[in-house]
Design brief:
Keywords: Membrane, Transmembrane, Transmembrane helix. By secondary structure, this protein is mainly α. About 45% of the residues lie in helices and about 0% in strands.
């Protein structure tokens, strides 16, 4: 259930992008190593990936998530219990409740 429409924090977004970049660079290193282990056509595929992956990784690492979250879930009524406003009780003078007077006096911001 969505509670807020707030995006991830900038630090969390940066950490996710850094992790994604490091994974792609790890794949690139594997491609470099596989150039010496695979034959023929696959060697060209590994060279191609090793050349193209850095550009893709940089583009994805610099891409900030600008998507908006779905706010419809926030507006839908739910079946979960909700707090109600409750009953407002007036002060009972006999009980010793609120001793403030309801009419303003001079010096309290009211007119005499």
């Amino acid at each position: 259930m969505v509670v807020t429409t707030a995006p991830k924090s900038p630090a969390a977004q940066r950490k996710q992008r850094e992790r994604q970049y490091m994974i792609m660079m790890g794949i690139r290193m594997v491609c470099f190593l596989l150039i010496f282990a695979v034959p023929g056509f696959w060697k060209l595929v590994m060279i191609g990936l090793a050349v193209v992956l850095p550009g893709i990784a940089v583009i994805l690492a610099n891409a900030v998530d600008r998507r908006r979250q779905n706010t419809a879930a926030l507006r839908e009524p739910s079946d979960s219990p909700e707090l109600t406003s409750g009953v407002v009780l007036e002060a009972d003078e006999d009980y010793g409740g609120d001793h403030r007077q309801s009419t303003p006096h001079q010096g309290q911001g009211g007119t005499p």
